[in-house]
Design brief:
7-stranded parallel beta sheet, 15 helices, single chain, alpha/beta, binds magnesium ion, about 325 residues, binds phosphoenolpyruvate
Length: about 325
């Protein structure tokens, strides 16, 4: 997961195979005015060239919620996390959306680009976003730009509605990327920035594991790949990674300094044993029980993973 150009040098040195989440909004919110297509193009091109031959998944602008830019002043919402954010913002500011997509498609001439849309909650958002991608491609080809015409286009799965619709959404896209940070927030109805209720914010809650399992099943049904780019794989150490392996996720994206640790955890277990664990997890009713089960597995079968159990456990216990 990358937000700035500075972080790119660590991608290869930490053993990552490309960038699974490039949060483009930081390029937008760290400046006082909107960046032009040309400025964005040069920035994306530099990113892509540095990461080549591996790919970069650029997430289109995910402003709103807790990420406001100076040039967005005047937006006053009672519930910003449920408001004008992510793809909703882009689809109502098509000028900004188009210039970002044009810059991304132009950058695709210099390396391997993939694009994904944040905060999808309904089918119409996917269809409209894809329609705009097609228009942008046609315009660029007409203007004689060289672009990759087969860029993979995916969506983030971070609302419960997207999970419920996943098998239909999966017909329209090339991949899913699960945004567990927001998925936990929306599924458990707990503001991810509110410390008073943070005890409820738990990626190991059985409801979250089930939503991720359902997303992977839908992806399998449609023959597309599915990754996870939320913090679940890193905030919980081995406790977060083991269920993700067992569910059958294809990719994990995380801050690069944690990649060696995640690889070590993945290489210590087999798919079959973690898959069996999932069946037991899904019978549990609380996150505490899920944690206990995972810790028992580690103690009994993989004691070498003990060092990857987070020291502090929040929650109800
Ligand atoms: C997520 O929601 O899991 C995610 C990766 O997006 P962000 O944290 O940038 O909202
Ligand atoms: Mg998110």
């Amino acid at each position: 997961n990358v937000e700035t150009m500075d972080e790119i040098k660590d991608v290869h040195s930490h053993g990552a195979r490309g960038i699974g989440l490039f949060r483009t909004e930081y390029f937008f919110i760290t400046r006082s005015s909107l960046p032009s297509e040309e400025i964005q193009y040069r920035f994306y091109r530099d990113v892509v060239e540095k990461v080549a031959p591996d790919s970069v998944i650029f997430r289109t602008l995910d402003v709103g919620g807790d990420k406001m830019a100076e040039w967005m002043s005047g937006i006053d919402e009672a519930n910003p996390f449920m408001g004008w954010r992510g793809i909703r913002f882009s689809l109502s500011r098509k000028d900004i959306f188009r210039s970002q997509l044009r810059a991304l498609y132009r950058a695709s001439a210099h390396g391997k680009v993939k694009i994904m849309f944040p905060m999808i909650s309904v089918m119409e958002e996917v269809l409209e976003s894809k329609r705009i991608c097609e228009e942008v491609k046609e315009d660029l080809l007409r203007e004689r730009y060289i672009i990759d015409e087969d860029i993979e286009v995916g969506i983030m799965i971070e609302t419960p509605s997207a999970v419920a619709l996943a098998s239909r959404l999966g017909r329209e896209v090339d991949f899913f990327s699960i945004g567990s940070n927001d998925l936990v927030q929306y599924a458990l109805a707990v503001d991810r920035g509110n410390s008073r209720i943070s005890y409820l914010y738990d990626p190991l809650h059985p409801s979250i594991i089930k939503l991720i399992r359902d997303t992977v099943r839908a992806a399998r049904k449609r023959g597309i790949w599915v990754g996870l780019c939320g913090e679940m794989a890193v905030s919980e150490g081995a406790l977060g990674v083991l269920p993700l392996i067992g569910i059958g996720l294809d990719e994990i994206s995380a801050p690069s300094y944690l990649i060696p640790e995640i690889k070590k955890i993945i290489r210590s277990v087999t798919f079959d044993e973690t898959h069996a664990l999932i069946r037991n997890i899904l019978r549990k009713s609380t996150a505490g029980e899920v944690r206990e089960l995972l810790i028992k597995f580690i103690n009994e079968k993989r004691p070498e993973l003990r060092e990857f159990i987070p020291k502090t456990s929040i929650k109800f216990d």
